[in-house]
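FAQ: What does a ligand-bound record look like?

Like this one, built around 2-phosphoglycolic acid:
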Amino acid sequence: MLIAGNWKMYKGPREAAAFCRELRDAALPDDVDVVVCPPYVSLESAVQALADTEIGVFAQSCHWEREGAFTGEVSAPILREVGVYGTLVGHSERRQWFGETDDSAGARVRAALEGGLHVIACVGETLAEREYGETEAVIRRQVGALEYDENLVIAYEPVWAIGTGRTATPEMAQEAHETIKSLLDVPVLYGGSVKPDNAAELLGRPAVDGALVGGASLDIDSFAAICRAASRS
Ligand code: PGA
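The answer part, i.e. the structure of the complex:
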């Protein structure tokens, strides 16, 4: 089981360090892999606060070139230099607000893996796509832009469930995860309004290998509770 906390645009370096110290002291279960994904400027303080622990620090994106004239972007070698272990790629908020496409996400994933980072690549349908019966086609298209790698994990995040308090039912998650696994044999996380009170049910489905948690990862008690639910699932 892998539980990843996506902090999005929350927690500067000081707050990140304080949170990571609390996480370190929270006695999280040994059988759950835990990672946090702070904003770029908070990565180094998170890495330092979590030194000598098993908790990994991931970025929220990564550019496809090693260096170059790409204002506002950060590459795998730069992330590695500050001790970052992996990165998210292709989150739906990047697709919605910053023009991320299947092709650009695929290029970022390849570069991150080649650069020695672990990757959590995000896929998932919008509400309109689900209502038009296009969920499976969208998943096939998005996953089709990726290739198998032993350091690749996919997060299935139905866009209509992100930050909305609406979660996919465990059956919907299981079905989507089975589709993904039929295309690429990699661990698949569920994401979209995962909270302490729904985590156990979602994580209990056989094709659910963990969770990508947004809002509930910002609070130490709720994030630790989700990690403990993962241990029991
Ligand atoms: P949420 O976010 O848990 O706040 O719905 C999940 C995500 O966007 O990764």
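Follow-up question: can I read anything off the structure? Yes, for example: The pocket of 2-phosphoglycolic acid is lined by residues 6, 157, 162-163, 191-194, 212-216 (CB under 6 Å).
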